[in-house]
Design a protein that fits this description.
The chain is mainly α and 640 residues long. The protein is 64% helix and 4% strand. It is built from 26 helices and 4 strands. Strands 1-2-4-3 form a 4-stranded mixed β-sheet. A hairpin with a 4-residue loop joins strand 3 (622-626) and strand 4 (631-637).
Length: 640
């Protein structure tokens, strides 16, 4: 009971989460994550926490008080929960490019009113509980998970397939030293709650962000003895910044989460060293790019009381090693896929084009759509400038109030800049063309997270001035403007389909799942399927990598469904749908895989569907229409 009474929220909950991720990853790497390995990881987590708790008890450190839900928060909380319920009822079985196609104006009005009422309550001196803010964040970042029938993108299904294989076999070979932190968390929650893997993974990241980050930032403000009302205002306005990295669970995004925990913890007056290092190590075992930066943050924070030559050398060494480790981790990933160590010229043309767009003022005032959409994308264009302004203001505030944060943040920014330049020399030829420069874009997110303390400080200062202002006539214009910006931020966080943006990906539909199940149940022998990314993702999520009724890996180590990032079947699929669906093309693919049975899957939303369907019908042995014609399956049987 003493342990529960002295439980510190959110520090201890975050510490346990980080330790579960860390020890689960270590046990898997050294042994495997079967039930014995899982219990061992939980045991090590418990023992470590008890040791830390005992030391804290001896130091007579007091536990933080819980934040209760006050009466002003209950109406907001009820409305937010009602919106969550509404979104769950809007779930679509179709393949969606954007969740906004399924949501009407009542939701937007309710969301805007929530933002405005929350701002008015805080400005009026009425406190909003952190629990209400946490549910507000959950509404903001779990929207796609509620609307889509299944996950969207391809990566989540690859990770789900890996996690299912680990649960079934204890491990998957060959082992890789990254992604393990997410796998450990997902598998632990699956075994504790008995929830399906896809459900756990779908809500894991948005849940972690909503549950922990508002509380930790609130502690950060309290630690610096800042006005808590202004701090709550910063948290309520957090969705003003578009955070698409929070809406889907991937190892990279989980690493970002732990990096945020590390950076916020590192810049407190009183540093929780166990939480600082456990979150940094958890980030590393999720994904090394953010993980190396998290480790450097923890190291610099631990050295922040050093002075003189020793401190300078230590910071210079930590920064230099990070600047080298960041591109090396990505080069190693590229080498694993291609076995090619050669470098390439940086994408100077793309960089110059991006800079030209930034410095061209025309993009700040778009005029291609209706006025409200023009306003949204104008806000999107101004958003990076707003963030830069906040970061500069935060650094200027540090200069006026000498703080040790700069000894941590400055070398991190320098390492990040050098690492980005070196990373631009890596070709990433194993990645599909339009995703090849996503690795460089990750450095922008890392820079944003590293400078988060500056953003928080500047935001707090500006909002604190507004709260302290006696000019009442300005209140409602500011509330309306800020609530509108929060609503715009929500719209820009998710994939969109309009004249300014055309989301390339589609979510997996119920028809995709029906097709892969029909093929699996009706195939007389091992087979290959030529299909688009969504159908391949559905097969990965449903059947994983391990053999079932049929083998998943065939001759020449060929996976039986196309994988856009690797393998040869996707090229054959593109030839079938872009050129002509010749029987000889799919026969060549079947011979490459060493099978006699093959299928072509065609979705009704594919460009030229009717024409391709007619041509494929003449070449195939049989045609099967599923889900009221939403998807067609063409079967091919080849003899000896």
């Amino acid at each position: 009971m003493k342990l529960l009474r002295n439980f510190k929220w959110p520090d201890d909950a975050l510490l346990i989460t980080s330790l579960v991720s860390l020890f689960g990853a270590l046990i898997y790497w050294l042994y495997q994550l079967n039930w014995f390995g899982q219990i061992t990881a939980w045991f090590l987590t418990g023992i470590t926490y008890c040791i830390i708790y005992r030391k804290r008890r001896q130091s007579k450190e007091k536990a933080s008080t819980n934040n209760r839900i006050n009466w002003t928060s209950w109406p907001l909380l009820i409305i937010i929960v009602g919106l969550l319920f509404y979104l769950s009822k809007q779930q679509s079985l179709n393949a969606l490019q954007s969740p906004w196609t399924e949501i009407g104006w009542p939701f937007w009005l309710a969301y805007w009113l929530l933002a405005a009422i929350g701002l008015w309550l805080i400005k009026s001196g009425r406190q909003i509980s952190l629990a209400t803010i946490a549910v507000w964040w959950l509404l903001t970042y779990s929207l796609a998970s509620l609307i889509y029938f299944s996950a969207f993108g391809f990566d989540p299904f690859v990770h789900q397939a890996t996690e299912k294989t680990i649960i079934a076999q204890g491990q998957i070979t060959p082992k890789t030293p990254y992604y393990l932190g997410q796998y450990a968390l997902v598998i632990s929650l699956h075994r504790l709650t008995k929830l399906p893997i896809d459900q756990v993974e779908r809500f894991l990241l948005s849940g972690l962000i909503a549950i922990f980050v508002p509380w930790l930032i609130s502690v950060w403000f309290k630690n610096r003895q800042f006005n808590q009302s202004a701090g709550r205002l910063v948290l309520w306005l957090w969705p003003m910044i578009s955070w698409p990295i929070f809406i889907v669970t991937t190892p990279q995004n989980c690493a970002y989460f732990f990096l945020i925990i590390t950076v916020v913890s590192a810049t407190m007056n009183q540093i929780n060293q166990p939480l600082l290092w456990s979150s940094a190590l958890a980030s590393l075992v999720c994904q090394p790019l953010a993980g190396w930066l998290a480790l450097t943050t923890a190291a610099l924070a631990s050295l922040k009381n050093f002075s003189g030559t020793k401190a300078t050398i230590s910071r210079w060494l930590a920064g230099s090693l990070t600047a080298i480790a960041l591109p090396l981790s990505l080069w190693y990933a590229s080498w694993q896929q291609t076995a090619n160590w050669r470098l390439t010229w940086p994408p100077i043309k793309k960089l110059l084009g991006w800079l030209a767009t930034i410095f061209n003022c025309h993009h700040l005032w778009p005029n291609q759509e209706v006025w409200w959409l023009n306003l949204i994308y104008s806000y999107q264009a101004w958003q990076p400038l707003l963030l830069i302004l906040l970061i500069i203001a935060g650094w200027l505030a540090w200069r006026r109030q000498p703080l040790v944060w700069t000894r941590i943040i400055r070398p991190l920014n320098q390492s990040l800049l050098i690492g980005a330049v070196l990373t631009s020399l890596i070709s990433f030829n194993f990645v599909i063309d339009y995703e090849r420069y996503n690795y460089l874009q990750r450095f922008l997110w890392l820079a944003l997270i590293i400078n988060l303390p500056a953003i928080l400080l500047a935001s707090w200062q500006w909002l604190n001035r507004w709260i302290s202002s006696k000019d009442r006539w300005l209140n409602w214009p500011i509330i309306i403007a800020l609530a509108t910006a929060v609503t715009f931020g929500l719209y820009l966080t998710y994939p969109r389909v309009d004249n300014y943006s055309n989301a390339k990906g589609l979510s997996v539909s119920a028809a995709d799942l029906l097709a892969i199940r029909w093929i699996e149940n009706n195939a007389p022998s091992d087979y290959i399927v030529l299909a688009n990314q969504q159908v391949g993702a559905a097969a990965l999520g449903e059947y994983g990598f391990y053999p079932g009724r049929h083998n998943r890996y065939l001759a020449n180590n060929l996976f039986y469904y196309p994988i856009p990032t690797s393998g040869q079947l996707y090229g054959y699929y593109l030839k079938m749908v872009d050129d002509y669906p010749q029987r000889s093309t799919i026969k060549e693919a079947a011979e490459l895989a060493g099978v006699k049975q093959a299928y072509l899957v065609l979705n009704s939303y594919w460009y030229g569907f009717e024409k391709i369907a007619q041509e494929a019908t003449m070449e195939a042995d049989a045609r099967h229409s599923l889900a009221n014609g939403q998807i067609l399956v063409f079967s091919y049987q080849f003899s000896e």
